[in-house]
């Protein structure tokens, strides 16, 4: 006989109460606080329950975007939460810098090692981090590091998902309640591409520039000397439909040291570099032939295509460039280009106003 268990949906108030009960049982705690909404809500929840026995801890390293640390500090100051900053050195660990698929494990390992030492000094009973229930099941080597180091995830334990976390942040008046997810800069490097201080600076400056252009949700993926920019579809329409804006972006990123600047035709996808872990690529010259056939069949003349790692980069004549600003037409092309077997499809921005490859 099969027994079926039905879990009744709990309200956010019930989940919050469980979170508070978990926190109240811990005594003094350290909270890994990145400045994002999850860790901010956890820090505030712990402070509401434990007062000065809740201490937020932020890592400072090359892999964090400029301005992030000061923003994190300011929020803790505004809320009156104790805050410590530790300098981490994950780039000095070759297991991290060579950028394997479990790179995040070694980042969290570095942070938790520092926090374990701080816990002894502060006589803290537990170390916490901001994983929620929506993070479970995703590829997150950092969660394995947390398990190995005995770090707890009270948001997850209380059954809070991302929507719940944002709702609490808004209810508590936190300015980060609707902030886009911000992964560390090393997440912009495809697995196997070494993470270097110089590369991180390039990504940081590139994303800062794109953000100043008015694009809030974005990624600049760092394929060595190639920048592949991801923007939400509606923002991509705006960029590709504005020759002056496109030219300005292209020139700035070339100045930063990139040899080729392209936009991802599928748009912004959080964690897009994990896609290659489950999907293969063709890895042969047929990808270029397929791409050229698709483009010519759609009326694009004078096109060129190149294959670099898992990425197909297409270049079209200047007079055809604006056609990619049409989202429906762009999506149709992407569907056809998927026959090339390549995971990433990008448009060379040199197509817009430049004649050189």
Task: Quickly list its features.
4-stranded parallel sheet, 357 residues, alpha/beta, 2 domains, single chain, Rossmann fold, 6-stranded mixed sheet, elongated
List the helices and strands and how they pair.
Blueprint: H1 12-24, E1 29-32, H2 37-50, E2 54-60, H3 68-79, E3 82-87, H4 94-97, H5 103-122, E4 126-128, H6 141-148, H7 154-157, H8 162-171, H9 197-212, E5 219-223, E6 226-230, H10 233-240, H11 243-255, E7 260-264, H12 286-297, E8 304-308, E9 311-315, H13 318-321, H14 327-337, E10 344-348, H15 350-353
Parallel strand pairs: 1-2, 1-4, 2-3, 6-7, 9-10
Antiparallel strand pairs: 5-6, 7-10, 8-9
Helix pairs in contact: 1-2, 2-8, 5-6
Over all CA atoms, what is the radius of gyration? 23 Å
Alpha plus pi helix count: 15
Output the CATH homologous superfamily of the largest domain.
HUPs
Mean pLDDT comes to 91
Stated plainly, the CATH topology of the largest domain is called Rossmann fold
Q: Which structural class do the helices and strands define?
A: alpha/beta
Order of helices and strands: HEHEHEHHEHHHHEEHHEHEEHHEH
- The N- and C-terminal alpha carbons lie at a distance of 68 Å
Low-confidence stretches: none
Molecular shape = elongated
Overall CATH architecture of the largest domain: 3-Layer(aba) Sandwich
């Amino acid at each position: 006989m099969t027994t079926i268990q039905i879990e009744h949906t709990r309200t956010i108030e019930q989940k919050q109460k469980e979170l508070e009960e978990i926190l109240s049982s811990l005594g003094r705690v350290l909270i890994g606080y990145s400045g994002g909404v999850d860790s901010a809500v956890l820090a505030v929840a712990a402070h509401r329950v434990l007062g000065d026995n809740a201490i937020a801890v932020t890592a400072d390293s090359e892999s964090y975007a400029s301005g992030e640390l000061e923003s994190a500090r300011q929020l803790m100051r505004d809320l009156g939460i104790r805050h410590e900053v530790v300098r981490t050195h994950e780039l000095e660990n070759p297991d991290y810098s060579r950028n394997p698929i479990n790179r995040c494990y070694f980042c969290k390992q570095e942070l938790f090692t520092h926090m374990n030492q701080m816990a002894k000094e502060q006589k803290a009973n537990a170390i916490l981090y901001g994983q929620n229930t929506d993070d479970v099941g995703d590829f997150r080597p950092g969660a394995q590091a947390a398990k190995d180091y005995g770090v707890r995830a009270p948001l997850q334990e209380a059954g809070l998902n991302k929507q719940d976390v944002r709702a609490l942040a808004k209810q508590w008046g936190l300015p980060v309640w609707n902030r886009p997810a911000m992964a560390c800069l090393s997440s912009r490097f495809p697995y196997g591409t070494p993470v270097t201080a110089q590369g991180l600076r390039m990504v940081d400056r590139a994303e800062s520039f794109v953000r100043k252009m008015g694009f809030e949700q974005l990624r600049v993926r760092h394929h060595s000397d190639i920048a592949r920019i991801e923007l939400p579809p509606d923002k991509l329409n705006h960029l590709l439909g504005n020759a002056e804006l496109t030219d300005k972006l292209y020139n700035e990123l070339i100045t930063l040291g990139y040899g080729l600047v392209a936009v991802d035709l599928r748009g912004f996808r959080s964690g897009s570099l994990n896609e290659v872990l489950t999907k293969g690529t063709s890895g042969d010259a047929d990808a270029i032939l397929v791409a050229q056939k698709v483009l010519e069949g759609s009326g694009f003349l004078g096109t060129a295509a190149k294959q670099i790692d898992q990425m197909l980069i297409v270049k079209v004549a200047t007079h055809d460039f604006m056609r990619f600003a049409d989202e429906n037409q762009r999506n149709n092309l992407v569907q056809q280009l998927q026959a090339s077997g390549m995971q990433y499809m990008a448009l060379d921005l040199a197509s817009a106003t430049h004649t050189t490859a």
